[in-house]
Write a structure and sequence with these properties.
Elements lengths: L3 E5 L11 E8 L8 H8 L2 H11 L11 E7 L2 E9 L13 H18 L2 E4 L11 H11 L7 E5 L7
GO biological process, one term: peptidyl-glutamate ADP-deribosylation
Catalytic activity: an N-(ADP-alpha-D-ribosyl)-thymidine in DNA + H2O = a thymidine in DNA + ADP-D-ribose
Protein name: Appr-1-p processing protein
């Protein structure tokens, strides 16, 4: 499987065979409580626990924009917590999404995914509460993942996510 496949569905129940990594964007404040993370937490407690511990111990680890944390939640499923937004609110510096951080995180994710022989599954990362535009995020996914032969499935979970 290569390229980006778009389907309507729930990214927390990734389709297909083999090892799967569910990727999503987190903020750099340690906040977990709105958007896609709620669906993740309903399904598995581990990604939230790992993210909060990662943030809590950030003086001693790589927590920050562009960082990636992989958390195993099932024999064949991992969740990638990617730090791709500064804060949680739109303010004087614009929307929270940071495209450079998403790009950096996707590059790191590509290495991890290739090592596991996995496919990547995600909502339209950075385009919900983070305020990003899919026209800016999709090329990053294509360059960092698809160009390396990694299969990517994007899940639209109702509503218009074409921003």
């Amino acid at each position: 499987m290569s390229g980006i496949t778009y389907i309507r569905g729930d990214a927390t129940t990734p389709s297909g065979k083999g090892v799967k990594v569910i990727a999503h964007v987190c903020n750099d404040l340690g906040g977990w409580g709105k958007g896609f993370v709620l669906a993740l937490s309903r399904r598995w407690p581990e990604p939230e626990k790992a993210y909060r511990a990662w943030h809590r111990d950030r003086a001693h680890n790589d927590f920050g924009l562009g960082a990636v944390q992989l958390v195993r939640v099932d024999r064949y499923i991992w969740v990638a917590n990617m730090i791709g937004q500064r804060g949680t609110r739109t303010g004087s510096k614009g929307v929270p999404v940071r495209y450079e951080a998403i790009d950096t995180a996707l590059a790191k994710l590509a290495d991890e995914v290739a090592e596991r022989g996995a496919s990547v599954h995600m909502p339209r990362i950075g385009c919900g509460l983070a305020g990003g535009k899919w026209s800016r995020v999709e090329p990053l996914i294509t360059e960092r993942l698809v160009a390396r032969g990694i299969g990517v499935t994007i899940y639209d979970h109702g509503g218009d996510a074409s921003a």
